[in-house]
Amino acid sequence: MAKTIIHTDRAPAAIGAYSQAVRAGDTVYLSGQIPLDPATMQLVDGIEAQIHQVFKNLSAVCEAAGGSLNDLVKLNVYLTDLSHFARVNEIMSQYVSEPFPARAAVGVASLPRGALVEAEGVLVF
Q1: What is the pLDDT of residues 105-119, one digit of tens each?
Q2: Residue 33 to residue 20: CA distance in whole angstroms
Q3: What is the gyration radius of the CA atoms in the chain, in angstroms?
Q4: I want to staple 74 with a disulfide (CB 3.0 to 4.6 A). Which of 4, 28, 105, 122 is the partner?
């Protein structure tokens, strides 16, 4: 099966050896997005702004792949402080409509660039 690399300037450029997303057939695998402003490549400040930025970045990559966040079938969210989980739920509902995708929330010791949140997902068309 052929794979297609997905890239958009509306999301942060990769900061390592990975693509923003890869499409294989009807499935798109989204790499983890941290809350970098794509224009400056700097982290935004504060947990709420970081959660919003992560969903904006994911949305931009979804759109570059020809879909939207509503095409997500699986979403993994990584938090350095699980007490922010309720805020993720509240903010996520502003970007993703029901029925919601399958999801995991994982507490981690640290994330790249000192981010407080990261998310990755899988889309199916």
Answers
A1: 999 999 999 999 999
A2: 8
A3: 14
A4: 122
Q: What are the pLDDT digits (tens) for 41-60?
A: 999 999 999 999 999 999 99
Which CATH code fits 3-124?
A: 3.30.1330.40
Cβ proximity of 108 and 78 under 8 Å: yes
Q: Rounded CA gap, 4 and 27, in Å?
A: 10
DSSP 48: H
Residue 2's Cβ-count burial label (10 Å; 0-12, 13-18, 19+) is exposed
Structure tokens given for 80: 């350095």
| 72-79 and 21-24 strand pairing | unpaired
Q: Which amino acid, 30?
A: L
